[in-house]
């Protein structure tokens, strides 16, 4: 096994490999510097007038810690450039997929960032409880009143104190479909839940398997079902009951939850409806959520309920537009008059009240930032009402922004993100996975209720 | 180092056991059946890695839609994945992380080995009161799970004002490596016949020259073996790096870059195979270059050095 005589040759070959590796690393590095330099002047000329109120903050640094990593981080970082150029502040951006655990570790160890983009109200509460977070300054609070509204403000309010302005948002109440297929087969985009059901039946009658779904997502496997259930809860019982359910004022195994989960089961556990192009009902558990909608492009599946951020999963040559290969419609309400919207978003929680941190927080909560960001990114949307929908580039982002800004829309934040971690990022996911692989609805909701922290 | 052979000549020859254990093992393991099993195991163990290699050259849509084995029916070859992973205008680039990994790993290997060598010498050959108790204490530290130390350590680093630099990572890896390193090197040193050291002492050598001129050359395989262990551990470590280096590419090593490579919502997971191969390159090279020491280190105890 250990061939001594040829060792010399081996060493030479391997030294070569190592050399190549090093060169690659170095080359990557050096070209990086020149790229960075090249990209700075290319930033559009900015009118600094709107930034003068922040004052002169030259030489100051604000550190930002977030779960937004590649490729979404690039437009984030670029959207800070006007602020940086005008105020002289340097924003140090740190993206980390392990954000949700690490931010707690850092807060507890006394090493928090200046600003964290917290994607869950539940986590925000935990971070505030560490005692390191600072309430948002008045200007941010005013901006949120002006651009977001009370419901968003409440998500970031702990014990009567308002902490964090919303940043980006996502819209989960969407169903992806193929406009081409709809036109060819004469399908109409449904406007009520009953129509959605009728459409699914019609597709079955046409010999299709209408829905495709997938819930595998590493340790978070199961979350797409929680979104389904929340959407159904909102539609069947309305936002008030939804809030009670999320806050555990009604039990998780009550009649409402059971009916909501059964309503999901009518789609996802119906062997006639699923799992288009992927297998049987059980294949939902093993299909990754990233891949679950792809059969739509091949025509093996017609409908896929997933948030607007699913847009990033289509191949580059798939056109995402109303007249393209795939697009999404709003998952209809019980009737055409109600318009509940399930979604999520991040909040800009600060751990320092230095003037430059507050200035940056204010900038991020403003319509100025929302429009700057919209102009350079795709696959991003905000609930900021100051956001001009026409600034958004991709059709799906426009649709999402329209849904969020619709005065009839009633927005509700993803329930599992607000529930205690033992439920929202544990029992709910796991039981939902068991449910799709055969466990009945009653056992499922009973088990989640049992796991609820007393 | 050139003086290696000098002290040995003054030593009475140590007679090796008639049939060494290694010899017996070699005889038993070289039967054709054993070879066959070895080959099967090797193939089984290599197939996933091979699949990863094939995947890294397939285009995104193929990676997402079919398994790597379908590559042979319908070969479409692309270097795009590698380009994406290395191209620095892309924020997924591993370039900076790659360099960070070297900056982290090299001191994180040298510091514990240096300290452990000196400590092991003292434990093995210098008599001082409380030596055995202290040695057991050091060894017992091995059972402390590193997870419980993370937050307290980070707090100490923050107080010392070195959080966010390379120091916390170097220090942490050294701290976690030392108990095992001291124990292993101590055992290697203990097995060196005391006659060698006595002879050196008769020749007028003090502790320093015994350590550098007699022991260190003999310890080379042990040092290399532990060096490889530590190198692989540090290079492939995610937990320590995540906790002490955080996300951005200023101090974080390639494994952290790799963990973030798949994107916020896992949309770019087709890049992982290419990223993994770039990350594997270095430890594999190190292992292959040093493997003869590794094997000798594992069989150490003999003075054939």
From TrEMBL, chain A:
* Protein's UniProt name: Alpha-glucoside ABC transporter substrate-binding protein
Answer yes or no on keyword Transport.
yes
List the InterPro entries: Bact_solute-bd_prot1
UniProt similarity note: Belongs to the bacterial solute-binding protein 1 family.
Keyword flag Transport: yes
Q: What is the lineage of its organism?
A: Bacteria, Bacillati, Actinomycetota, Actinomycetes, Micromonosporales
Which superkingdom is the protein from?
A: Bacteria
Q: Which UniProt keywords apply?
A: Signal, Transport
Signal peptide: which range, if any?
1-27
Q: What SUPFAM superfamilies has UniProt attached to this entry?
A: Periplasmic binding protein-like II
Source organism per entry reads Mangrovihabitans endophyticus
From TrEMBL, chain B:
Q: Which Gene3D superfamilies does this UniProt record tie to the protein? A: MetI-like (1.10.3720.10)
Q: Name one GO biological process term.
A: transmembrane transport
According to the record, the residues making up region (Disordered) are 1-21
Tell me where it mainly resides.
membrane
Q: Does the keyword Transmembrane helix apply?
A: yes
Where does the ABC transmembrane type-1 domain lie?
A: 98-290
Q: Which domain of life is it from?
A: Bacteria
Which topology term describes how it sits in the membrane? Answer: Multi-pass membrane protein
Record CDD domains: TM_PBP2 (cd06261)
Segments passing through the bilayer: 33-54, 102-126, 133-154, 166-189, 210-233, 239-261, 268-290
**Keyword entries, A-Z:** Cell membrane, Membrane, Transmembrane, Transmembrane helix, Transport
The answer to keyword Nucleotidyltransferase applying to this record is no
- Could you tell me where this protein is found in the cell? Cell membrane
Pfam families for this protein: BPD_transp_1
Q: Tell me which PROSITE patterns the record gives.
A: ABC_TM1
Using the record, list the residue span of the signal peptide; answer none if the entry has no such feature.
Answer: none
Q: Which GO terms describe its cellular component?
A: plasma membrane
Q: Would you identify the family this protein belongs to, as annotated? A: Belongs to the binding-protein-dependent transport system permease family.
The name this protein goes by in its record: Sugar ABC transporter permease
Biological source species: Mangrovihabitans endophyticus
